[in-house]
């Protein structure tokens, strides 16, 4: 990966003036941090605009703590997704400056410490059972500096609840629509707004829902243009993609 010459010059000047040590400078120039069980991408923020995100599921609590410690040497913002209560409690014991958002299964930099964008995105979910995925999407975007407005329990079985908020939804620049069952809400929203819609099927539903596969196929087959479909229960992906759009909008 090519490095920004001005950043390298600033780094060398910091070493020269004894602001940082040679070891710290070498660490900042490294491509990744070798932890044995993981190679931590130290330049993700430079390439993609946001640091490496930690997927907590399948990792031990000790591994998560070590990854966070590595990332904090190079980044000010931390995001851990799919982390359960036991792991979150352990992480906060070692990194008390982070916050746990239990409904979203997320540990991250406290949201009140992050400056938010001028434009906002709308996060909608069809029913209360979809809230964990909706919150995963919303908090992911907020950690990335995006203003979020939430519109929950606005499914098509009581569609008047959606229409009560439609003007605020239209004024957003991206909509994320979270739904299980047959996933009809994303098509309805897609037909009412003039901005991109990210649809996230959830695994919520009865037998023929097939753990979200029916919802996924329904959303993919939507007749409403401008709708992109994420994987089942992938609130993180929707929040990340929406944040990228807002960041491009505000940084151009």
TrEMBL record:
GO molecular function terms attached to this record: hydrolase activity
Signal peptide annotation: none
Domain of life of the organism encoding this protein: Bacteria
Annotated ranges, domain PurE: 119-251
InterPro entries per the UniProt record, alphabetical: P2CMN_synthase_LarB, PurE_dom
Pfam families assigned to the protein according to its UniProt record, in alphabetical order: AIRC
GO biological process terms held by the UniProt record: 'de novo' IMP biosynthetic process
SUPFAM superfamilies assigned to the protein according to its UniProt record, in alphabetical order: N5-CAIR mutase (phosphoribosylaminoimidazole carboxylase, PurE)
Protein name as annotated: Nickel pincer cofactor biosynthesis protein LarB
Source organism per UniProt: Staphylococcus devriesei
Record gene name: larB
């Amino acid at each position: 990966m090519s490095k920004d010459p001005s950043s390298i010059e600033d780094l060398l000047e910091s070493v020269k003036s004894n602001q940082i040590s040679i070891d710290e400078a070498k660490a900042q120039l490294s491509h990744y941090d070798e932890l044995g069980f993981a190679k931590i991408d130290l330049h993700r923020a430079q390439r993609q605009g946001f640091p490496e995100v930690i997927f907590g599921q399948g990792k031990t609590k000790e591994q998560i703590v070590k990854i966070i410690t590595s990332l904090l040497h190079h980044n000010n913002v931390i995001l851990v997704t799919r982390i359960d209560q036991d792991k979150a409690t352990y992480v906060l014991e070692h990194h008390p400056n982070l916050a746990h958002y239990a409904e979203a299964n997320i540990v991250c930099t406290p949201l009140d410490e992050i400056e938010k964008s001028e434009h906002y995105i709308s996060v909608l979910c069809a029913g209360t059972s979809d809230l964990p995925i909706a919150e995963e999407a919303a908090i992911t975007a907020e950690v990335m500096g995006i203003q979020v407005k939430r519109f929950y329990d606005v499914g098509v079985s009581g569609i008047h609840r959606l229409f009560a908020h439609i003007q605020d939804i239209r004024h957003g620049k991206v909509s994320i629509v979270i739904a299980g069952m047959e996933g009809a809400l994303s098509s309805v929203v897609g037909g009412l707004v003039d901005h991109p819609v990210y649809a996230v099927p959830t695994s919520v539903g009865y037998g023929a829902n097939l753990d979200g596969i029916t919802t996924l196929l329904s959303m993919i087959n939507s007749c409403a243009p401008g709708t992109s479909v994420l994987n089942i229960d992938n609130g993180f992906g929707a929040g990340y993609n929406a944040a990228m759009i807002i960041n491009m909008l505000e940084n151009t």
